[in-house]
User: What shape does this take?
Amino acid sequence: MHTVTTIDGLRTARAGLAEPVGLVPTMGYLHEGHLALVRAAQERCESVVVSIFVNPAQFGPNEDLAKYPRDIPRDLALLEEAGVDLVWLPTSEVMYPEGFQTWVDVSEVSQPLEGGMRPGHFRGVATVVAKLFNATEAHFAFFGQKDAQQVAVIKRMARDLNFPLGVVVVPTQREADGLARSSRNVFLSAEERGQAPALYRALIAAKDAYEAGERNAEKIRRVMLGTLAGASLAQVQYVSCAHPETLAELDTVSADGALLSMAVYFGKTRLIDNLVLEGQ
Ligand code: AMP
Assistant: This one.
């Protein structure tokens, strides 16, 4: 496994990789969710590049950039064991050198949900992902359904900017009790961790209601809120029942189905989760 930091180092190592090349962008502190992306990339591609970069541009001023968990030696050991070909660890200076001033703004689909709560977040995400696509010249890039709006933003960007690359979405990996795996889960206290599966339970309760015939989006949101109310430490930031592509809030779930999603604080830790209701 090669490990590189600079753009020149990346380009040299990339030139020696068998094609097609798969890219797995991450912020590190790897877990089973990231490794599922690596496995999906290995199934589809001859070579796999993993990037690890905690992207300052996607964190707001009051967010947890400085506290974001990091453990590069452990990450490298996991990637080596997984059989990854190349790891790119750019620094902020490599990604945003002095004078940097070009940003990618995916205007509409970045606005609701996470974009509404985290202004500028998807501008940072789209910009760094565009840079990763260009620098690695990957044929496929792998993203988790865990970050559903990120997938929508990246797919739109790839189409709008004609990136010659396929975006592949991998299902959300969960702990045995349903909690979506996340680098931020380490911040949960034992009691918070015990209550955190309420997010998944709320999504499943809403899905059950949908499958029993409920199509009123507000009632579906209320089902989610009802389940979350059972977790005393949960502070709900939003629950959403939105169109699966535009992400606009729905009055009624139509034949297009819906994206159910939520952001919930446990103490200072912000958890997100989602589930797609297939159109019927
Ligand atoms: P992050 O390091 O949190 O930026 O995540 C890097 C990639 O891993 C993103 O495409 C995420 O959507 C994906 N990812 C994170 N957690 C999970 C999970 N539990 N299941 C599937 N993919 C995930």
Residues 209 and 220 are 7 Å apart (CA to CA). The first helix runs from residue 7 to 15. The two ends are 46 Å apart (CA to CA).
